[in-house]
C-alpha cells in the first residue's frame, strides 16, 4: 500500500514481540475514531509541532502517531516517507501502555525491539522516545522522536517533550469539539456518521449483528413553549444521560440535532435492542415519578437491524431508522411539530406498546 513502510523480510527465526492490548482498548478506539481524524490530510497545526520537536531534539524523525486497531497512522510525519506502519511492530503501541514518556535508548540492545524490522531494516531505529497523547483519559497515540543512533534524554528534555505533547493534545481536543454536541457531550451528526461508518465496516467483516435506534422526544416543542428553552435544554441533557446509562461503552451514541438522537448498538440483535428500549423507558419512568415538573420526558423510537445487502452506508441505515420512527410516531398521533394529547395512542402498558411496535415492524418488512 502506498504510504506504508516496506517490510520485505520478517525472519521467522526472529519472533516479534508485539505490544500488549490496553485494558480499555474498545473505549480507546471509540474515542480515537470519534475524532474523525484518521486518514485525513496533513495539517500545519500538527506539522508545526513535529518540526519543533525535530529541531529542539536534533533528531531526523518526529511523528504524531495515532494507534488504530491494527496500525499506527501518522497525522504528522517529519523525516519519514510513510503514512502508517503495522501496530504489531510499532514502538508507539508499547508507549500507550503507560502514562509517562516511553524511552528506548538503544533498540539493538533491547530484547523487545532488537529483531524488529523497523530496527534491522529501514529506517533503522536505534533511539525512540514517545509521550502518550491522552484525551478524556484515553491514550490515543504519541508524539515521538526517533534517531538512528543511540542516545538518552535528561529530565529537562523529557519535560520539553511532555510540553510539546500537551500542545498536540490541545489540537486533538479542538478537533473533538467539531464532532461533539456542545449541550449533551454526545457525538454530533458529523461525528456519528464517521464513527458509526467505521464501526459498521468492522462489524460487516466480522459478521457481527448491529442494530440502530432512532429516538425522538415526544412533545418537546410544548416543553420549550410552556417552560422556555432552558428547561428544554435540561430535558435534552437528562434524556442523553439516560441513554448513556442504559447503553454500553462500545455503542455509538449521538444527538443528531434538535430532539433527535441515535444509537448504533454493536453486537446486538433487534430483540436485544428492544431490551435497551425497555431499560430506557424504565429509567425515564423512574425520573418522571420523582420529578416535580408538570411534564414527563417520553420518546418515540424506531429499531432497524443492519442488513449488509440493503444498507451500504450508515446514512442509509439511519434513514431507515428515521422513517420507521416517524411512521410509528404518526400512527400514535404524535406529530413532530404539534402534539394532540386527546388523540394520543395509549402507551401505559409496555407490553401493548411493544406488541404494537412488533406488529408494525413486521408489516413494514
Shape: elongated
User: Average pLDDT, to the nearest integer?
Assistant: 86
| Sheet/helix structural class | alpha+beta
- Total of DSSP H or I helical runs spanning 4+ residues: 11
Report the end-to-end length measured between terminal Cα atoms: 42 Å
Strand content: 15-25%
Helix percent band: 40-55%
Would you kindly provide a written description of the structure presented here, covering whatever features stand out?
- The chain has a six-stranded antiparallel β-sheet.
- Residues 5-14, 336-354 and 359-365 have low confidence and may be disordered.
- 42% of the residues lie in helices and 19% in strands.
- Helix 2 (44-57) runs antiparallel to helix 5, helix 7 (220-227) packs antiparallel against helix 8 (229-246) and helix 8 (229-246) packs across helix 9 (270-290).
- A hairpin with a 5-residue loop joins strand 2 and strand 3 (84-86).
- It is elongated and about 75 Å long.
- The protein has eleven helices and ten strands.
- It has 365 residues and is α+β, with helices and mostly antiparallel strands.
- The protein has helices spanning 25-34, 44-57, 92-95, 117-120, 155-177, 189-206, 220-227, 229-246, 270-290, 314-331, 350-364; strands at 61-67, 71-78, 84-86, 102-104, 127-135, 138-147, 210-217, 252-257, 260-266, 299-305.
